[in-house]
Structures are given as C-alpha cells and as structure tokens.
C-alpha cells in the first residue's frame, strides 16, 4: 500500500566466552504503524502483566508465556530482521555498531520511519543514561550525513516498558537460544517471518533448525502482518523443554558453528571480490596512464602545423571618415 510506513523495535543479545566463538546480535521487530497498537495490545495480553523479560521467564519455567509471546511476534510482525556478528572477534561495542550500521540501511529501504532501541542505560540520571547510548546516535548521524539513510528516519532510545520492545526481546532471546544451546524449539516459532544477515558483509545467513523451507524472504516494498509461524502448530501437550539450570555447552555447538562458518565464508568471498576489484581498478589506471604518455609522445613528434595563409595587410582607407565634431554631432569629417 502506497504511503505505508513502519516502526521498528530493536533489542540485543550476545554470547562471549573462552570456549565459544561467541556472537553479538541485534533483533528488529517491524510493525506497520497502522497496526502497531493492535500488536502491542496482543503482546500485553500474551504476557498478562506489565513486565516482560524472556530470560527471567524462561528461568522461572514460565514456558507458556514465552510461547505466547513468540507466537504474537510471528502473528503481528511484518518482518523480524536479525543482524549477527559471529564470531565475536571484536569488542562488543564495535560489533554493535557494525550490526546497527548494517541494519539501519535495510530498515530505511523498507520505509521504516521510527527506530526504537532498548536503552542500555540503567542509571536513573538522564545524562549518564544518554551517554551509554551515544554511540548508536553517532552511527545514525554518520549514515544520515553520507546519504545512506533518510533523515526522515528517527532513532531514539527508551526503557523496555514498551510492548514493542518486549517483542524484540523475545525475538533476540529465541535467536540467542538456538545459537547458544542448539535449541530450535523457540526459534522455530518465529523462523517463518525472520531473516538473518551478517553484520560485516550483509550476506543472508541461515540458522540450522529452521527447516530450510518456508522461511521469510527479505521483504521488498510493502509487507504486512504475517500468518502465525507454520513451525509452531497448536500444542496438545506441553513439550519437554531443557531445564533452565542446564549449563551452557563448553564447546561451540553445531548451530553456532554452522553460522560462524557461513559468516567466515562470506567474509572471504567479500575480501576476494574487493581484492579483484582493487586489482582491476589498478590495471585500468595503469592503462589510462600509458595511453596518456603515448598521446604526449605522439604530440611531441608531430607538433600541430597551421594551414591558414598569412594575412595580407589591407590598404589604408582614404575615403571620408566618420567622427564626432566639437558640437557632439555624428557626421562625416572631410
């Protein structure tokens, strides 16, 4: 529909440790502005309260609430966009800004006009809280100045009281869970409306356990509320979930390893293309310089010659001359 604009809610998740390649990710849940309030109300109804944090709910074994929250995301989100930095081979803040720098241009192409990030500042002092989010705003302003995103896109931070940020928290947690613990049960509930992109190259990635089939493609133009995830049919009995007290694996699990390999292959291919492009540009520049030198040598050996005949001086005019007399009148002077 022409003129439709969207709002994106963004939250983060990460894993770092000595026995894992680690990852950092940003999850954006995109809602149509016309139906955003409906999605918020549905999320509040699914949670059944005024507070939501997926990790704490999972630790408290409140699995049904987590299920309902993820199904609400799948039913109401026009699109869920995950940008991952895996492996986490740089400081966290650098990884975050790379993810944000990759995410904002894609949101801009999808006509998102409001980007709301979960504020990372826990300090009640607004000045200190704002300083924790300053780097995000710097990345945003840099992209606006270079023309990568429109200045009509607004970016702001706010505490996680907005139900839209609850949806982003749920999506980030489900992605973190499948990467950290090789547990696709939660991820499969949103896989149909989710795309995953590498933060460094912008390459589309695939997460094991998503079925590899009816996943959401990167949207082009309009996108509206999607159907509920086909990977999450109604359950007749509660599934057997892993215990929340289970220790994380002390080695890279299959899902994260597969994602890291995809990212590294994409980076290698990207580097090869850049190297080939640089070599082609260097070769073209050398050819242009050689052509310029050749033209200069030819010009030096064959200086231009004028074929025009020499001008013959004209005889003086002895006829009457025109001029202005002392009275200022234009007349012939003898």
TrEMBL record:
Residues 117-136, 207-249, 297-334 are annotated as: Disordered. It comes from the Bacteria. This is DUF3800 domain-containing protein. It comes from Catenuloplanes atrovinosus. The lineage of its organism: Bacteria, Bacillati, Actinomycetota, Actinomycetes, Micromonosporales.
